[in-house]
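Fold this sequence, please.
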Amino acid sequence: MQEMTGLIAIFFAAIFTNNILLTNYLGMCSFLGVSKEVKTSLGLGAAVVFVMTATSVLNWLVYYYVLVPLNLQNFRFIVFIIVIAAFVQIVEMIIERISEPLYNALGIFLPLITVNCAILGVSLFMLIREYTFAESFFYGIGSGIGWMLAILAMAGIRQNMKRSKIPKGLEGAGITLIIAGIMALAFMGFSGVLNIQ
C-alpha cells in the first residue's frame, strides 16, 4: 500500500509540482511554437505522453540491463538519444501505416518529438533520482501528462487572445513568455501539496 502511495505521489508531482515544462523549462521550443491551436496542441501532447512514457521505461531497461552490466554508463546520453529517435521513428511508421489521416494531422509534429529535450530530461531525471522500474513508468506518464496540460492551457489562452488587443511590443513571443511565467507561478501553487525530489 505504501509503495502504491509513493507511485501515485510521483505521478501527481510530475504533473503539477515538478512539471517538466514549467518547473525545469524543458521542451519550451515546441511548447512556444505549437501552442497556437488547441487541436494541434492536443495531438502533439498525446504523442509526447506516449513517447515520454515508453522511452522512459525503455531507457531505464537499457541503462540497468545493458549499460550498467557492461560498465558503459558514460554513454547514457548517446544511447538515450538513439533510443528516443528510434522509438519516434517506429511510432511514425506505425501511425503512417495504420491511420494516414492521423499521420497527416500530426504532420511535422511527430519528428519534432525526437528533439524535444523534455523527453531526454525525463530519462535523465529518473536516473538522478534513482527510480525503480515502476517509479520510472509513473514519472514518465506523469511528466507527459504535465507537459500536455501545460501546452493545452497555453493553446487555449493563445486562441482566446486572438480577439484581444495586445500592445504592439508584446505581440507574439513577448506575451507568450509572460503567460508561460504566470502559468509556472500557478503550478508552483501546488508545491505545498506534493513535492517529490
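Residues 122 and 135 are 12 Å apart (CA to CA). The chain has a mean pLDDT of 87.
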